[in-house]
Specification:
The chain starts with a strand and ends with a strand. By secondary structure, it is mostly beta strands. The protein has two domains: 56 residues; 68 residues, OB fold (Dihydrolipoamide Acetyltransferase, E2P) (Beta Barrel), CATH 2.40.50. The protein is globular, with a radius of gyration of 15 Å. The strands form two sheets. A five-stranded mixed barrel has the order 5-6-7-9-8. Strand 8 and strand 9 form a beta hairpin. It contains two helices and nine strands, in the order E-H-E-E-E-E-H-E-E-E-E. It comes from Diaphorobacter aerolatus. This is OB-fold domain-containing protein. It holds the Pfam family OB_ChsH2_C.
Length: 133
């Protein structure tokens, strides 16, 4: 479900990732879609990673996804995440097409359908994917 579309614009005072990070604060996953080839991507970019066109539009994702990869992080990469270890990270494919990484329950399985949730850790809003019953 697309609930919002805005052209990709940046200014010296607004980082390229601002649409994505503001979405997380609002508990919404945002992604870019290319007007030229319709490719969807989650990492904020100035141009489409498939065709190179600079005609990108931001959309809100439904939050529904399928788990494509899973790993357990036993040794946190920084002190900020040490309190969470061990934790499970997954790469999911959103129903809208793009893939992204987030936290998940340890028992989540590759191929399983999940829904995005959000949690705060040390002042950051992070993604957590929960299995769909």
């Amino acid at each position: 479900m697309i609930t919002n579309t805005t052209a990709t614009t940046t200014s010296p005072h607004k980082p390229l990732s601002a649409h994505f990070t503001q979405g997380l604060l609002a508990h919404v996953i945002r992604y870019q879609r290319c007007r030229a080839c319709t490719h969807a991507q989650t990492l904020a970019r100035y141009a489409c990673q498939r065709c190179g066109a600079e005609q990108l539009v931001w959309h809100d994702a439904s939050g529904l996804a399928t788990v494509r990869a899973k790993t357990v992080v036993s040794r946190a990469p920084s002190d900020d995440f040490r309190a969470l270890a061990p934790y499970t990270l997954v790469i999911v494919e959103l129903d809208e097409g793009p893939r992204l990484m987030g936290h998940a329950d340890a028992d989540v399985q590759i191929g399983q359908r999940v829904n995005a949730g959000f949690f705060e850790h040390q002042g950051r809003v992070l993604l957590r994917f929960e299995p769909i019953s």
